[in-house]
Write a structure and sequence with these properties.
Number of helices: 8
Order of helices and strands: EEHEHHEHEEHHEHEEEEHEEEE
Mean pLDDT: 92
Number of strands: 15
Structural class: alpha+beta
Distance between the termini: 51 Å
Largest sheet: 7 strands, mixed
Strand content: 15-25%
CATH architecture: 4-Layer Sandwich
CATH superfamily: Clavaminate synthase-like
Strand order of the largest sheet: 1-2-3-13-5-15-4
Number of domains: 1
CATH class: Alpha Beta
Low-confidence stretches: none
Length: 300
């Protein structure tokens, strides 16, 4: 197995690696798992091409790197409304009958939040560590996933801004990100899951020791700041962190698996125009080591 830069002549921060010489349908050795962990610490995003795997094989591979999360879809869906296991996030335009969702389908509209820059599960007290996304069916054009290097983004801030943000605490909720798009169709029984949680705006990546700008569309405010000022400032930081020099766009092909570290990157999916085309990707996510700051419910 080898882990190498995806693009040796890539212009900009080198934070994407390519893994070759491994079959993810087979159990990992301890040495292979260590190599992948080291690659994640170095790069933040790893690409595995030509991995024809089942859902069960994907979950087995993912468990080498921590406990699997139950997807937010799994938490907020009734029995019979899911086509995948509750540990698999259904990143597709298909319903539980494998039919294309209509344009006004509520779950489709809620999933449009994935087009905003975000870090997976930052709306949870214990956020996501690694996300692993497997491409089963991809549209002919569009639907790329973009990744932003949040370690490089922090390093590029001026010293005054770095000092200003070092100890700031933000509040995250999935309701904040969906509200940006005008979506608020959350069932009453799930309102408790919309309570904001708190995270540090600057964290230290445990594997590399580098400072990280921990941003996400799920951020609604900064503790102690007026909301309009906080949101304007977060928007400025988002614009800084997603400059082209910090961004890699992954053009999916069938049987790609892309693995990324939510503690070091942000990501978003791009639009594809032909709604008659199927896009079926499936994500597993491992939990972080613990919260980034002491938690307290921020909403009543």
């Amino acid at each position: 197995m080898q882990v190498q830069p995806l693009h040796p002549v890539f212009v900009g921060p080198l934070f994407v690696g390519k893994v070759s010489g491994i079959d993810l349908s087979k159990p990992l050795t301890q040495e292979q798992a260590k190599q992948i962990e080291a690659g994640m610490d170095r790069y933040g995003v790893l690409v595995f091409h030509d991995q024809q795997i089942t859902d069960e094989q994907q979950m087995t591979f993912s468990r080498n790197f921590g406990e699997l999360e139950v997807s937010s879809q799994g938490e907020m869906s009734k029995p019979g409304e899911l086509r995948l296991a509750i540990q698999m996030a259904d990143v597709s335009n298909l319903d539980e009958r494998n039919q294309l969702r209509t344009r006004d389908d509520a779950k489709r509209l809620g999933s449009l939040g994935n087009r905003l820059w975000h870090s997976d599960a930052s709306f949870r007290a214990i956020p996501a560590r690694y996300s692993l996304l497997s491409a089963r069916v991809v549209p002919g054009t569009g639907g790329n996933t973009e990744f932003a290097d949040m370690r490089a983004a922090h390093d590029a801030l001026d010293a005054k801004t770095q000092a200003e943000i070092e100890d700031l605490i933000t509040e995250h909720s999935i309701a904040f990100s969906r509200a940006e798009l005008g979506f608020d169709a959350f069932p009453p029984e799930h309102q408790a899951k919309l309570h904001p949680v708190r995270h540090r705006l600057v964290t230290t990546h445990p594997g590399s020791g580098r400072k990280v700008l921990y941003l996400s569309a799920h951020i609604g405010t900064i503790l102690g700041w007026p909301v309009p000022e906080a949101r304007a400032f977060i928007r400025d930081l988002m614009e800084h962190a997603t400059q082209p020099r910090f961004v890699y766009a992954h053009q999916w092909r069938v049987n790609d698996l892309v693995m990324w570290d939510n503690r070091a990157t942000m990501h978003r999916v791009r639009r594809y125009a032909d709604m008659a085309e199927i896009r079926d990707l499936r994500r597993t996510t491992t939990k972080c080591e613990g919260p980034t700051t002491e938690q307290a419910l921020a909403a009543e």
